[in-house]
Design brief:
- The protein has 353 residues and is mainly α.
- It has 14 helices and five strands.
- The protein has helices at 29-42, 54-57, 64-80, 98-109, 112-116, 119-126, 133-136, 138-147, 161-178, 223-231, 249-262, 266-272, 278-304, 307-336, and strands at 15-20, 47-52, 89-92, 153-155, 186-188.
- Helix 4 crosses helix 8, helix 8 (138-147) packs across helix 9 and helix 10 (223-231) packs antiparallel against helix 13.
- The protein is elongated.
- The structure holds adenosine-5'-tetraphosphate.
- Adenosine-5'-tetraphosphate (AQP) binds next to helix 1.
């Protein structure tokens, strides 16, 4: 493969990379409109790598059989959402040891104070998550996840912006210290959908681990339950259906969901609701979400009925991912002065004197 000046291998297409943790029994609609929709879009023009972040999930103690199940569910949901394993490498993070190895390199490049400024660690521990060193060093592993694939673009939600910034800093630091080695990635965060809010408290981010069940539309929720949650969404005391996240976060959140799922721009939606009340908005959004989720759930159920095939898809994805990650890691190690291992050949060893 030819190389650009400085040793970064030339690529035919730019690369996109992202991952999600298997920390719940299902992804939620925030994961879908905030990130997954963009994964699907980018696979048309990018060389795409999408993974189940099972190593990150170990920061939350989980029973082994639960983690196994959730890992397959998460992979199945990527595909059900439209990620095409023929075009995108879909794989498990733990199947590629290079992630953890580069994660160590990134940890050694990160100042303690810099890591301490990461807000997700503070937020999650403040909300009761166990504060282990893995959670603290999560951004360094995430930097490795991205940099190991020479990713140009990283489609994520707003909550990952700070982690993307430190990833860029680490890539630039490495390049400055050791010469041009790593691609500095760009976040791909679409403002309108980057932070879907809880239905029951539209001032808080919809979160898989923190939000109450009533505040989250799980992609595997029963349609009746989805409709009930949306119809019970907290709005405000006014009557007007208007996109104004500051003063009308609940109504705006529902409009964003509808716009994301239908492609109708927000101003057009506002006009379409002129003279109507919140009941009409909730009813319509509920119907749209239920309709969108039905084919998704059918595909997910089909994929999960054949775990062998799902594991095969993940194996193919890991093979494709490994072809890239092994090269990047070798490049990084060489730049840092780590000796390459000589191939052991016992027969050619000199016999002891
Ligand atoms: N509410 C959201 N709106 C838009 N995007 C969101 N994402 C998460 N919540 C929203 C994006 O989905 C991806 C999932 O990444 P993750 O598995 O690392 O989980 P997370 O960011 O911590 O979010 P979760 O799934 O809701 O879990 P917790 O319980 O940790 O809060 C990311 O791209 C994220 O930005």
């Amino acid at each position: 493969m030819s190389t650009k000046a400085g040793g970064i291998p030339a690529r035919i297409r730019p690369r996109s990379l992202s991952g999600m943790q298997p920390t719940s029994d299902s992804l939620h609609i925030g994961n879908y409109v905030g990130a997954l929709v963009n994964w699907v879009e980018l696979q048309n023009t990018y060389d795409a790598f999408y993974f189940v972040a099972d190593l990150h999930a170990l920061t939350v103690p989980t029973a082994p059989e639960v983690l196994r199940r959730r890992t397959r569910v998460t992979a199945a949901q990527f595909i059900a959402a439209g990620v095409d394993p023929e075009r995108s490498a879909v794989f498990c993070q733990s199947h590629l040891p290079q992630h953890a190895e580069l994660g160590w390199v990134m940890a050694c490049l990160t100042a303690f104070g810099e890591a301490s400024r990461m807000t997700q660690f503070k937020d999650k521990t403040a909300k009761g998550q166990q504060s282990n060193v893995g959670l603290f060093s999560y951004p360094m592993l995430m930097a490795a996840d991205i940099l190991i694939y020479d990713a140009d673009r990283v489609p994520v939600g707003e909550d990952q912006r700070q982690h993307l910034e430190i990833t860029r800093d680490l890539a630039m630091r490495f390049n400055q210290r050791y010469g041009e080695t790593l691609v500095v990635p760009e976040p791909h965060i679409l403002k309108q959908t980057a932070k879907l809010m809880e239905l029951s408290d539209p001032t808080s981010k919809m979160s898989g681990s923190v939000s109450p069940d009533a505040g989250v539309v799980w992609l595997s929720d029963d349609p009746k339950r989805i409709a009930k949650k949306i119809k019970s969404a907290v709005t405000d005391a006014e009557m007007e259906i208007r996109y104004d996240p500051e003063t009308k976060p609940g109504v705006s959140n529902l409009l964003v969901i509808q716009s994301a799922l239908t492609g109708v721009p927000l101003p057009d939606l506002e006009s379409s609701y002129a003279g109507q009340g919140y009941g009409a908005l909730k009813g319509q959004v509920a119907e749209i979400v239920v309709d969108a989720v039905a084919p998704f759930q059918a595909t997910m159920t089909e994929l999960l009925s054949d775990p062998g095939e799902l594991d095969r898809i993940l194996a193919v994805g890991a093979q494709r991912a490994g072809e890239v990650s092994a090269g990047t890691l070798a490049r990084v190690k060489d730049r840092m002065g780590l000796l390459p291992p000589l191939r052991g050949d016992r027969s050619s060893r000199k016999p002891p004197a």
